[in-house]
Structure formats: C-alpha cells, structure tokens
Amino acid sequence: SDGSIRLHQMTSEYPLMQWNDSTNGQPIIALQWALTRPAVFFVLDASSTIYIWDLLENDLLPVAKQIIPSEKIVTMALLGEPEKKNGLLGIALAKESGEIDIQYVKKKWALP
C-alpha cells in the first residue's frame, strides 16, 4: 500500500532486496515478472503508471516508467510465450471502463 517492493527467496522470511517508496508512495495494484526474461518485472501503481525493472541493468531503480494518461488502469497481465525465442512480450491493461488495451514491450526488455 505504500509503494514498497520486496524480493524474497522462498527459504527465508527476510527479503533479498527491498525498494522503499518505489512508486512515490502510490499503492501497487499489480506486479508481474516478464514471461520471457527472468530479471525483468513490471509494476502498475494506483495512478496508472507502469514501471519496468530490469535487475541486470539497474537493481536500484526502474529502467523505464510509462504513465497511462487516458483512463484509470485497474489491473494488468503479461502476455508472451517463454518457450519461443522471438522476444514478443505484451501487456494487457484493463481499464476502468472495461476496455482492454494491449501494448508490446521493447525487445530489449523481452528477449531472453
């Protein structure tokens, strides 16, 4: 609820990494690992901003941030086929109106 993210290992109750206030205090609505690239995850906050984290590029801050200005995004889901090496990775965004918007991610965050 405060925008903090914690990365845990299943064998420990203590986080391996913790990023406080990673969304400028906005509650996190959804967080999902990339299906095609293990070190990348996506975060959606309550202000309809998507943050892309690539832990191999920068483990302190997100590598990209995209504000979705048109309408409130209520959830997201990632689309991709990890067994294929084509690097296609998409984000399905569910809007408050019920519309679904699908956007594709740049290959540098999608390729295995």
What is this entry, summarized?
This protein is an all-beta fold and 112 residues long. It has strands spanning 5-8, 15-19, 28-33, 40-45, 49-54, 64-67, 73-80, 89-95, 100-104. It has one domain (5-109).
Structure description:
This protein has one domain. The model has no long low-confidence stretch (mean pLDDT 90). Strand 7 and strand 8 form a beta hairpin. The protein is mainly β and 112 residues long. It has a 4-stranded antiparallel β-sheet with strand order 3-4-5-6, with no helix packed on it. One of its GO terms (biological process) is intraciliary transport. One of its GO terms (cellular component) is cilium. This is WDR60 protein. InterPro entries: DYNC2I1, WD40_repeat_dom_sf. GO terms for molecular function: dynein heavy chain binding; dynein light chain binding.
CA radius of gyration: 14 Å
Spell the H/E element sequence: EEEEEEEEE
Q: What fraction, in percent, of the residue positions are helical?
A: under 10%
Shape by Cα distribution: globular
Q: Tell me the total number of β-strands.
A: 9
Strand count, sense and barrel status of the largest sheet are:
4 strands, antiparallel
How many domains? The number is: 1
- Which percent band covers the strand fraction? over 45%
Oligomer: single chain
Structural class from helices and strands?
mainly beta
Total of helices: 0
Ends apart, CA distance between termini:
31 Å
Strand order of the largest sheet: 3-4-5-6
How confident overall, as mean pLDDT? 90
Parts with pLDDT < 50 across at least 5 consecutive residues: none
